[in-house]
Specification:
This protein is an all-alpha fold and 163 residues long. The chain has one domain: Serine Threonine Protein Phosphatase 5, Tetratricopeptide repeat, CATH 1.25.40.10. Helix content is 79%, strand content 0%. It has eight helices and no strands. The chain is globular and about 45 Å long. The protein starts with a helix and ends with a helix.
Length: 163
């Protein structure tokens, strides 16, 4: 009987810690621009993701953690790791093309690694050709390949204005 009470108390403690990390994660997501305590915030986001691994919220926290890390200098590869984990784990989910697109943006903009950005965009375009991310990705890939030609920049501005 004592053994069961112990396990019940342990389960309640674990569940309350999971709920706490999830509520803290939602607060971090709502205040995304604050990166002052980034190391603690990343632990909270990763904890929320790992506590909801069999849940659709895992995707939310993995992408949020990637977005958060992409804002912090020196954390771009960690952001890409999170985006690619979503794509690799759940390629049939609608968030998979978003993950590839954001990984390509981080490769191109944060790391200035245009070959990997182009390669990632190629995967996006080939795997999810009918998505809005593939259309936007093909335009971004043209910019990476051909440079910042003024006609391409006009097309990108038009692309950004369309929902």
């Amino acid at each position: 009987m004592i053994k069961y009470k112990f396990f019940l108390c342990l389960a309640i403690l674990v569940f309350s810690n999971c709920q706490e990390s999830i509520s803290k994660s939602e607060k971090i997501i709502s205040e995304f621009s604050d990166t002052t305590n980034f190391d603690q915030n990343l632990i909270i986001l990763e904890s929320a993701a790992s506590s909801s691994i069999n849940d659709s919220m895992w995707i939310r926290y993995m992408i949020a953690s990637g977005d958060y890390q992409a804002q912090i200098p020196g954390r771009a590869l960690f952001a890409i790791r999170n985006y690619m984990a979503v794509y690799d784990s759940l390629p049939s989910r609608p968030e998979a093309p978003l993950s590839l697109f954001t990984a390509a943006i981080v490769f191109g903009e944060e790391l200035d690694d245009h070959p990997r950005a182009i390669q990632t965009l190629g995967i996006l375009i080939d795997t999810y050709p009918e998505t809005k991310y593939a259309r936007r990705g093909s335009e971004y890939r043209e910019v990476l390949i051909f440079g910042k030609d003024s006609s391409l920049i006009e097309r990108i501005h038009k692309w950004q204005q369309t929902p």
